[in-house]
C-alpha cells in the first residue's frame, strides 16, 4: 500500500509541476501577445518581381537543429527576452517568440509595446519609412534597424547621410551593409551553371528568321535610370523584340502577361530563344543588382547590362555580359551586337563559362558561401529572418556587456550602407509631353529628398514628436 501511495504522490507532484510550468508559459505569452502566424499576400509588383513579403515561408530552422533544449527552456522561463518592434508592419505578426541561436527575442508589430521596458529595437522597412509616425522620443537603449532591398526610387530620403546614419543596423543591397543583400535574387551557383533552359546556338540562329537578336521585357516605364530613352534610341539601329508595356512591339501569350509570370516556365522558354536581352535596371547604384542580370545568365542568354557601375564585381566570369557603359552611343552598341550575332565563335565566348560550368569570380563564390540566408529555399532561413536575428543577437551582445558592468557597443550605419547618385538623363532622351511628367520627376524628386533628409534629421535629433506640418514647413524653409 505504501508504494501505491508513493506512486500517487509522485504523479500528483508531476501534474502540479507541469501545471505551474504551463501557467508560467501562458502568462509570459499573454503579456507579450498571442503567438500567431498571419499569411501575407503579394502586395504589389516592382519591375515585375514579387515584393519581399513572399519569401517568409521558412522560419527559424535553427530552433529545430539546436539540441540544447534544456538551456533554451531555462532562458524562456526566465522571461528576460527583449522585444523587437517592427515599426513598419512588414511581417504582419502580432507576436512571435523567435530563437536566434541561443538568443530569444519577441518580434511584433504591436505598437503598444513602444514604451515597454524590454523594447530594445525598432525595425523599419525602407519603402514604408516615412515621417508621419516615428517612435519618438527615442531612448538611449533604443536601436533602429533598417531593412531596404528595393530601388532608391521608393524612398530617396534614405539615401542621404542625415537619414541613413539614424540607424544602428542595416540590411540593404550594398555590400557595405551590416547584412548585405547584394545577391538577393540569385538562388545559388547551381542555377547559373544549369543548362536546363539553354537553347543551342544553332537553334537560336534558326530562330533568328522570326526573332530579333535582342529582347526587352519591361512594364515599369520611365524610371530614374532613363532606360526607355536609351532603348528607344537603340531601336533605330538594331531590331528589338519588346514585350511588356514599355516600347511594346510584340505580344506575350495571354497567360504570361501578368508580371508575376516572369518566373514561369513558359516565360523562361520564350526568353531563352533569344541571343541577347536588354537587362536595364530602374536605377543606377553600386550593388543594386536585380533579377534582370541573373535571369538571362540562368537561361543562357547574353545580358546587355545597364545599371550598377560595380556589376563586374558580381558577374560569374569576366566575359559573361555586354556592358552598355563601355559604348559611347547606342549606335556603337548596336554595331557590336550585330557583329556577335553574325560570328558564332565570338558569340560563344560570352557563354563559354556556362557551357563549361566554370564560375571564375571568387568574390561571387565567397559571397554566396558566406551569406546566412537562402533564396526561395525552404531548407534555409530567408533574408528577413537573417535580418531579425542579426538585430536580436546584437541586442543580446549589449545586454551581456551591461550585465558585466561594461558599456554597450554602439553600432551606426554609414553613408556607404545605402548611397546612390542623383539620377541623370541621356542626351538623346526625347522631350516629355506635358501630360506625362514621370520621366521629368526623378531629378527634382531626388534634389528635394536632400532637403527632406536634413529636415527629418533635425526633428529626430530634437527627440520630440512632430507633425507633418512642422516637417514640410522645415523642408521648404531650407
UniProtKB/TrEMBL annotation:
Its EC number is 2.4.1.-. InterPro entries: Alpha-1_3-FUT_met, Glyco_tran_10_C, Glyco_tran_10_N, Glyco_trans_10, GT10-like_C_sf. The keyword Glycoprotein applies. Keywords: Endoplasmic reticulum, Glycoprotein, Glycosyltransferase, Membrane, Signal-anchor, Transferase, Transmembrane, Transmembrane helix. It comes from the Eukaryota. Gene3D superfamilies: Glycosyl transferase family 10, C-terminal domain. One of its GO terms (cellular component) is endoplasmic reticulum membrane. GO terms for molecular function: alpha-(1->3)-fucosyltransferase activity; peptide-O-fucosyltransferase activity. Pathway: Protein modification; protein glycosylation. Residues 83-180 form the Fucosyltransferase N-terminal domain. It is a single-pass type II membrane protein. It catalyses: L-seryl-[protein] + GDP-beta-L-fucose = 3-O-(alpha-L-fucosyl)-L-seryl-[protein] + GDP + H(+); L-threonyl-[protein] + GDP-beta-L-fucose = 3-O-(alpha-L-fucosyl)-L-threonyl-[protein] + GDP + H(+). It is found in: Endoplasmic reticulum membrane. Residues 214-364 form the Fucosyltransferase C-terminal domain. Belongs to the glycosyltransferase 10 family. PANTHER family: ALPHA- 1,3 -FUCOSYLTRANSFERASE, ALPHA-(1,3)-FUCOSYLTRANSFERASE 10. Protein O-fucosyltransferase that specifically catalyzes O-fucosylation of serine or threonine residues in EMI domains of target proteins, such as MMRN1, MMRN2 and EMID1. Attaches fucose through an O-glycosidic linkage. O-fucosylation of EMI domain-containing proteins may be required for facilitating protein folding and secretion. May also show alpha-(1,3)-fucosyltransferase activity toward the innermost N-acetyl glucosamine (GlcNAc) residue in biantennary N-glycan acceptors. However, this was tested with a library of synthetic substrates and this activity is unsure in vivo. This is GDP-fucose protein O-fucosyltransferase. It comes from Erinaceus europaeus (Western European hedgehog). The gene is FUT10.
Amino acid at each position: 500500500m505504501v508504494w501505491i501511495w508513493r506512486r500517487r504522490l509522485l504523479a500528483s507532484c508531476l501534474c502540479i509541476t507541469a501545471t505551474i510550468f504551463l501557467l508560467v508559459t501562458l502568462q509570459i505569452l499573454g503579456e507579450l501577445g498571442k503567438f500567431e502566424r498571419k499569411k501575407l499576400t503579394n502586395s504589389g509588383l516592382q519591375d515585375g518581381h514579387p515584393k519581399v513579403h513572399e519569401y517568409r515561408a521558412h522560419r527559424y530552422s535553427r530552433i529545430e537543429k539546436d539540441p540544447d533544449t534544456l538551456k533554451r527552456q531555462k532562458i524562456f522561463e526566465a522571461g528576460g527576452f527583449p522585444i523587437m518592434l517592427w515599426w513598419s508592419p512588414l511581417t504582419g505578426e502580432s507576436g512571435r517568440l523567435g530563437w536566434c541561436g541561443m538568443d530569444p527575442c519577441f518580434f511584433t508589430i504591436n505598437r503598444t509595446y513602444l514604451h515597454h521596458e524590454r523594447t530594445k529595437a525598432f525595425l523599419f522597412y525602407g519603402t514604408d519609412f516615412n515621417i508621419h509616425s516615428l517612435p519618438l522620443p527615442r531612448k538611449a537603449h533604443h536601436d533602429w534597424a533598417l531593412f531596404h532591398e528595393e530601388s532608391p526610387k521608393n524612398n530617396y530620403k534614405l539615401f542621404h547621410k542625415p537619414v541613413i546614419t539614424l540607424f544602428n543596423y542595416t540590411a540593404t543591397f550594398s555590400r557595405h551593409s551590416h547584412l548585405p543583400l547584394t545577391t538577393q535574387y540569385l538562388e545559388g551557383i547551381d542555377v547559373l551553371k544549369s543548362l536546363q533552359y539553354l537553347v543551342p546556338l544553332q537553334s537560336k540562329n534558326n530562330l533568328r528568321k522570326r526573332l530579333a537578336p535582342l529582347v526587352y521585357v519591361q512594364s515599369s516605364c520611365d524610371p530614374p535610370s532613363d532606360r526607355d530613352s536609351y532603348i528607344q534610341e537603340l531601336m533605330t539601329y538594331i531590331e528589338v523584340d519588346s514585350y511588356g508595356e514599355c516600347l511594346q512591339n510584340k505580344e506575350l501569350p495571354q497567360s504570361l502577361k501578368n508580371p508575376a509570370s516572369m518566373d514561369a516556365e513558359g516565360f523562361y522558354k520564350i526568353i531563352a530563344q533569344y541571343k541577347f536581352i536588354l537587362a536595364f535596371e530602374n536605377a543606377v547604384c553600386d550593388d543594386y543588382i536585380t533579377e534582370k542580370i541573373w535571369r538571362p545568365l540562368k537561361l543562357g542568354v547574353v545580358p546587355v547590362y545597364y545599371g550598377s557601375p560595380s556589376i563586374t564585381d558580381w558577374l560569374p566570369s569576366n566575359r559573361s555580359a555586354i556592358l552598355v557603359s563601355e559604348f559611347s552611343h547606342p549606335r556603337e552598341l548596336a554595331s557590336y551586337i550585330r557583329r556577335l550575332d553574325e560570328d558564332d565563335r565570338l558569340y560563344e565566348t560570352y557563354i563559354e563559362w556556362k557551357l563549361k560550368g566554370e564560375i571564375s569570380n571568387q568574390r561571387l563564390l565567397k559571397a554566396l558561401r558566406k551569406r546566412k540566408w537562402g533564396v526561395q529555399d525552404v531548407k534555409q532561413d530567408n533574408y528577413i529572418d537573417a535580418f531579425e536575428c542579426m538585430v536580436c543577437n546584437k541586442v543580446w551582445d549589449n545586454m551581456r556587456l551591461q550585465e558585466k558592468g561594461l558599456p554597450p557597443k554602439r553600432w551606426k550605419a554609414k553613408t556607404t550602407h545605402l548611397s546612390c547618385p542623383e539620377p541623370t538623363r541621356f542626351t538623346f532622351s526625347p522631350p516629355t509631353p506635358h501630360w506625362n511628367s514621370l520621366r521629368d520627376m526623378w531629378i527634382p524628386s531626388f534634389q528635394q529628398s536632400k532637403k527632406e533628409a536634413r529636415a527629418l534629421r533635425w526633428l529626430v535629433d530634437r527627440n520630440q514628436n512632430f507633425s507633418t506640418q512642422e516637417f514640410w514647413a522645415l523642408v521648404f524653409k531650407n
